[in-house]
Amino acid sequence: MSYEHIIVDRPADGVGRVRLNRPEALNALNSALMDEVNEAMLAFNGDATIGAMILTGNDKAFAAGADIKEMDGKTQIDMLMTVSLVDRFDFKKLSKPVIAAVSGYTLGGGCEIAMACDMIVASESAVFGQPEINLGIIPGAGGTQRLTRALGKALAMEIMLTDRKLGAQDALHHGLINRVAPLDEYMNVAVGIAQKVAQRSQVAIRLTKEAVNKAYEMTLEEGLAYERRNFLVAFGSEDKVEGMRAFIEKRRAEWKNR
Questions:
Q1: Do 144 and 160 meet the contact criterion of CB atoms below 8 Å apart?
Q2: What are residue 15's phi and psi, to 5 degrees?
Q3: Is the dihedral of CA 104, 195, 86, 82 positive or negative?
Q4: What pTM did the predictor assign?
Q5: Which long-range contacts (CB under 8 A, 24 or more apart) does 191-197 make?
Q6: What angle is formed at CA 60 by the lines to CA 59 and CA 62, rounded to 5 degrees?
Q7: Cα separation values, 91 from 11, 97, 102, 213, Å
Q8: Are residues 194 and 206 in the same domain?
């Protein structure tokens, strides 16, 4: 596929890469870019050679937010009839994990997209925030929900009501992201994590991702029941047989992803 606003890479390591590519606008999220990201991610998700995905921007900006010029002048009905960022970037519906590799401005919709991913690796220059309050609006793609779940009510309130920014180390300290790395290393770190994921049983990866995401939506009792269900499903896979046999025989497992 040929894309205008993203760059897609499919190397031989089982990790699909999608790079936001509107550098002149700090990767601001317009409808065309969002549609392309969604299309590329769905294609990777259906590709048997891909075991994990990376979503990234450039060193200066992962994404500085939604494209305000595109939203200016839109009415309530215009926005209602537009496919939302939440729906476009509901990565929990993808069976394969998505890792955000972010640097520089990771603000507004950019922060919300990063939080929608399964893991986040940041460069030391990354800055996270939800500055929508400055526009007289509120976060509309999961910011009030995911940021609060990640950081707790008090800090999330301060970030969204006062436009406080979190640097990479603060984001790591508060549990928003997984890793911080130097600017020239953060992509390598993200790729390393993604490669480890891609080398595992894709059956077990999918069942684990589903169960972890359910932890945000269910009571503990319901979540434990869901986990038990997925645990039993794994016992019906060829990968379960191969994984346990490889462990006993002290060799590397050869996954069938079945």
A1: yes
A2: -115, 120
A3: positive
A4: 0.92
A5: 191/13, 191/15, 191/54, 191/101, 193/99, 193/119, 193/121, 194/15, 194/52, 194/53, 194/54, 194/97, 194/99, 195/13, 195/14, 195/15, 195/52, 197/51, 197/52, 197/97, 197/99
A6: 80
A7: 21, 8, 16, 10
A8: no
CA torsion sign, 69 to 72 to 78 to 79?
positive
For residue 242, what are its two tokens? 């191969």
Helix (H, G, I), strand (E, B) or coil at 114: helix
Of the candidates 157, 144, 75, 155, the one whose C-alpha atom is nearest the C-alpha of residue 108 is 144
How far apart (Å, rounded) are the C-alpha atoms in residues 94 and 69?
30
Domain count, the chain: 2
Strand order in the sheet with 15-20: 6-9, 15-20, 52-56, 98-102, 119-123, 179-181
What's the token pair of residue 118?
């399964």
234-251 residue pLDDT tens: 999 999 999 999 999 999
**258 assigned to some structural domain:** no
Residues 124, 209, single domain; the answer is no
Asked if residue 256 belongs to a domain, the reply is no
Q: Please write the tens of the pLDDT for every residue from 69-118.
A: 777 677 777 666 666 656 666 788 899 999 999 999 999 999 999 999 99
- Which residue range(s) make up the domain with 23? 6-198
Q: Which residues are catalytic?
A: 66, 109, 112, 132
- Distance between CA atoms of residues 42 and 9, nearest Å: 14
Copy the structure tokens of residue 74.
């839109």
Tokens in use for 91? Answer: 């990565």
Name the CA radius of gyration of the chain, rounded. 19
Give residue for tokens 């009571």: 219
Dihedral of the alpha carbons of 74, 76, 79, 85, in degrees to the nearest 10? 120
